[in-house]
From TrEMBL:
Signal peptide: 1-20
Name of this chain's protein: ABC-type transport auxiliary lipoprotein component domain-containing protein
Keyword Signal tagged: yes
Source taxon at top rank: Bacteria
A Pfam match: ABC_trans_aux
Source taxonomy: Bacteria, Pseudomonadati, Pseudomonadota, Alphaproteobacteria, Rhodobacterales
């Protein structure tokens, strides 16, 4: 009987601290592929760990200030490590969109992949115009001789449905990573 009041006291304290601005973690929604992209050049692809700018590797969500600076939201956190999460999201989307065998590095199969994709992101944030922006460069390297390596720049943006809302930012990030997968399939894997 003495443990129950202690439990209620701890529960009450945790509820109070949540109301006082403790950080909340926001997952990126799982999106179904909006389109399929036919890829004939490869059957399997290894995705290297995605490279993010330093501010985008933090747990805190990054936003652009009205003055053009970048700040992070101390009470709005991504649910997962951003590098890991973007790499896994991109792997899933590439697989779903193309129908290829896609795995993130390290390659888990005995055979080698037909190609390797390296994604280097230079900008990933919610900007002051309420858009989620993603830009950088992709590199596709065939593992067999005779294949054609490719390098392409990308600059993508999607609107954030509710300005300043963490769930809307997470949804926009999910959409833009899916858009990046379509870009890679169309411009790097065909």
């Amino acid at each position: 009987m003495t443990r129950f009041p202690l439990f209620l006291a701890v529960l009450g304290l945790s509820a109070c601290s949540a109301l006082q601005g403790d950080p909340l973690r926001y997952p990126v929604p799982d999106l179904q592929p909006a389109q399929k992209v036919r890829v004939g050049a490869y059957g399997s692809v290894e995705l290297r760990e995605v490279s993010l700018p330093e501010y985008a590797t933090l747990a805190e969500m990054a936003v652009e200030t009205p003055e053009g600076g970048i700040t992070t939201q101390k009470t709005q956190l991504w649910a997962d490590n951003p590098v890991r999460a973007v790499t896994l999201e991109l792997t899933r989307h590439l697989s779903q969109i193309t129908g290829l065998t896609v795995a993130s590095q390290p390659w888990p199969f005995e055979s080698t992949p037909d190609a390797r994709v390296d994604v280097r992101i230079e900008q990933m944030l919610a900007d002051r115009q309420n858009m989620f922006r993603l830009s950088g460069q992709i590199f596709v390297s065939p593992t067999e001789e005779g294949g054609r390596p490719r390098a392409r720049f990308f600059s993508l943006s999607v609107p954030i449905a509710a300005p300043g809302d963490a769930q809307a930012m997470a949804a926009a990030r999910g959409q833009i990573v899916q858009d990046l997968a379509v870009f890679i399939a169309r411009n790097g894997l065909r």
